[in-house]
Amino acid sequence: MTSISATNIYNDAKLNIIYNNSHRAKKVTLKVNQIDRNIRVIVPGHKAFPAAKKFVEKNKVWIAHQLATLPPAQPFEDGGFILFHGEQYLLKHISSPTETIVDHEARLLNVYSPDNSSFSGRVRRMLISEARTELKRLTVYYANKVCKEIHKVSVRDTATRWGSCITRNGLGNINYSWRLICAPSYVLSYVAAHECAHLVEANHSKDFWDVCSEIYGDVNRPRQWLKHNGPLLYAVGAKI
Predict the structure, then answer these.
(1) pLDDT (tens digit per residue) in 136-161
(2) CB 177 within 8 A of CB 162
(3) Which of 33, 59, 104, 227 is deepest in the core (most CB within 10 A)?
């Protein structure tokens, strides 16, 4: 994922728009930020700011449509529902200092928090922990299938990619989005297999897809799920 060196120069709260100055940008562009549920306007220098505002005005209908078609937010609230392993789970705040209990049969997430104000953060950390544990396990499994070693598995809140892979000194360093824990288990498995296949083939050539299919199986189903349901993952934890 290519990072953009940008500084915030103006916010339009009414339109839910954030203007960012970027010296790398060549022209004014609009980007939908699904995590923060706003529109980022990339401005190529302060002098282009007036033109950027005109560009936004010209594209108001498109902006309104993009924000309106985002999936409903699933905030981390006691009594609310969030997507977890591809299903809707009920969040329950428990006040006794005990470990979080995941009840898959009842589709219930019992999350300890000393008070309501810290509940959202506790839920987020629980999901990240669950994602890290499961993705580390799957990564080792698929890395063994291609006879490669893993140096590090990281879990973050990535904005554009579900996973990425870098090989250094013959060892794999793989980064995943924690939001994958909200997808069905077969989707997690596919993304792990996909990234481990990059340990053998760095690009997306036919040889890469052959490796991916060999270690995972039919990749079409999980790819279609992500294509059609990816925005649902970004709605998890979003504020209303």
Answers:
(1) 999 999 999 999 999 999 999 998 89
(2) yes
(3) 59
pTM for the full predicted model: 0.85
Q: Which residues have C-beta within 8 Å of that of residue 56, sequence separation ≥ 6?
A: 12, 15, 17, 30, 41, 63
CB 212 within 8 A of CB 205: no
Hey, what domains does the chain have and what are their CATH numbers? Answer: 6-68 (no CATH), 81-125 (no CATH), 127-235 (3.30.2010.10)
Number of CB atoms found within 10 A of residue 111's CB: 22
| Nearest by Cα to 131 from 90, 81, 96, 175 | 175
17 class by beta-carbon count within 10 Å (0-12 exposed, 13-18 middle, 19+ buried): buried
Higher pLDDT, residue 150 or 168: 150
Residue type (1 letter), 168: R
**Distant-in-sequence, close-in-space partners of 160: CB < 8 Å, separation ≥ 6:** 1
Rounded Cα distance between 44 and 28, Å, is 6
pLDDT score recorded for residue 4: 37
pLDDT exceeds cutoff 50 at 2: no
